[in-house]
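Field: sequence (string)
Field: structure_tokens (string)

Example rows 1 and 2, in order.
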Amino acid sequence: MASAGAFAGLWIHKLPKAARAVIPFSGGLLVGVALFGLLPELASEIGWLRGLPVFGAGYFLLMWLDRRFHGHVVSDGGMSVQGFNWDFAIPLLIAASLHAFLDGWGLESAGTGTSEAVRVTFPIAVVLHKAPEGLALGAIFLAALRSRWKSIACCLLAEAATFAGGWAGSALTPHLGSAWTNYPLALAGGCFLYLGYHAIESEWRRLGPRAAFPPAVIGFAGAAAIQTGVRWLGL
């Protein structure tokens, strides 16, 4: 699902009048996934007092790195984000890979759990949030690298970490447990929040609020609806 979403993200800007909307829309998706998917999950697992500071640390760490190693404005076919190119793509690749790794670990843990409900519903929840996440990653990698081949390679590399996470979960969960995974997941969530916000802010400055705000809100609301719906259904 993530790979299918990524392929769609590489081509969505070809739709009529969609080019300028892709980056703020994708940024809104990432912000929605971070705030309505990852953050509530962390709060339920380790509490707000422990989850929120680590989440914030991921955000501010990436903000510091972006300001310390700031890139240039890249533009291609109406898609442009300030600070993009490899300076921006590499942190996104790392954050997405970490998130996928932890998804794989969680899937393996759920598959070997004692609850039939968890074994069935957890993979469904992962699939549902992977589609909008993949769409956002595909579109933003394309804006950053201006190459479909490089962009899809980055997306597939990031999502391949799911398999590594599954293997690591199988081998290490009996010795380490799974509670520790909440902390790197919080860091990844903070990175997602910054990456999404940065994409929206850059397009806001370049195109103005009228062009950037509506697609960002639509992406944010769509991700929020999916994440909230999954939780409401008990998945």
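Row 2 begins here:
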Amino acid sequence: MTVVTDGGLRGLHDTLESAYLALLAQGSARHFERRRDGYTLVGFAGLASPSMNRVASIDVPPARIGEMVEDAHDLFRERGLPWCVHVTPFTRPSDLESRLGRFRLLSELSVMVHDPAMQPRARPRAAPGDLRVRELEARELPLFLNVTLETFGMSRGFFPGLLDITAGWVESGGRAYVAELDGEVVGCGLLSRSEDVGGVYNMGTKPSARRRGVATAILRRIIRDQEESGGGLLTLQVTRDAYAEALYRSLGFERAYSWRLLAPRTYH
């Protein structure tokens, strides 16, 4: 991969972490955070998703792990939110996961970065009809969120919080897309920018339209728009070793590193 060399991996990690935390704070009154010496607690009021309420950017001595966990427990319990600990290859102490005995693995994600020098290898499967990708106007964001909820099988209770966050991202320069097949909306994707880093989020296809080139079409449009807007880093996160990871690799993305989300077993 030409975008990231081994010597620059820590720098890439720090850049992406900083950009992600900045992105979360863009435009949403629901966002809250508590910065401590060695870690950050970040979350969204009213959004009961543990992956959106987390302990991040961790660099603490082993003696302070208990303090960090209790701090997170108090903050998120006060707001009635589930939460998790975000562990990356550069988390310190490096054996933090083994020290979190009352935690379980929530998910493991690959952080992938687009290499503009790599020519896409994917050829979308022929769709039985007219497939097009279009960017939405701000007033159409409810449509985007409806597709997102259906695609990921999420509860309608997430709608207000996700709409508020997505609107903030779009107001800050983000771009929301849907894919339409024969006039029906069947997929979605979002391009957000923060600190000169482009991030791909909410990439999904309705179950009835999967494996038919929908995600490929959306991501190609995102890559094109990223390049036309000045380029720079383009990154996304996907469940490690899932089918989608192979698809993204065929479009010029490479895994830079992986990180894990750990949820407490006994705390809310």
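free_text_note (row 2): The longest strand covers residues 103-114.
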